[in-house]
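Postdoc handover notes: sequence design on the structure in folder B. Input tokens:
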């Protein structure tokens, strides 16, 4: 079996498999290319041609894992917002006020998860809620907070639905 045959048979499926994992077309293309470089290099060592599909997908999974490992080394959680031009909302003048204006149950969940850093399942257990309920509260709270940032501070949403922009808050000026 030749690399070209493997590419023609599995290339598109593999690309969409990778894209589903990384959610970025350029990164998916890079990972696909790296995967096929390894496939080409190691194809002569494949002992059982019947297992080529599993072998190809395993190489792609490893490349995806390598990508995420590499990203974790280069970007600390504090740097991610700066690198992507996303706004760090905890530095915003109105952040605490917006949190305080959330309904009591929402405020408690948001503070436990995002301010104190507890895991969602721990919060669900300590508050006597189901995990899906905690996730729904977080989703609703984020939507409310986004709306407040857009209305009060004149932020905008980027194509991924993240708040971006500079503070232009009538309340704080």
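Designed sequence:
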């Amino acid at each position: 079996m030749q690399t070209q045959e493997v590419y023609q048979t599995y290339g598109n499926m593999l690309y969409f498999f990778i894209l589903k994992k990384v959610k970025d077309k350029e990164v998916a293309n890079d990972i696909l290319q790296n995967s096929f470089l390894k496939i080409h290099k190691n194809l002569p060592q494949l002992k059982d041609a019947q297992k080529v599909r599993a072998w190809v997908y395993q190489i792609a999974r490893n490349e995806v894992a390598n990508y995420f490992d590499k990203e974790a080394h280069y970007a600390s959680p504090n740097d991610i917002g700066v690198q992507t031009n996303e706004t760090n909302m905890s530095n915003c003048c109105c952040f605490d006020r917006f949190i305080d204006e959330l309904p009591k149950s929402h405020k408690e969940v948001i503070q436990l998860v995002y301010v104190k850093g507890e895991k969602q399942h721990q919060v669900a257990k300590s508050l006597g809620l189901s995990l899906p309920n905690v996730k729904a509260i977080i989703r609703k709270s984020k939507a409310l907070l986004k709306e407040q940032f857009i209305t009060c501070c004149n932020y905008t949403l980027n194509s991924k639905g993240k708040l971006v922009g500079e503070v232009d808050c009538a309340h704080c000026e």
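Context for whoever picks this up: The two ends are 69 Å apart (CA to CA). Don't rerun without checking with the PI first.
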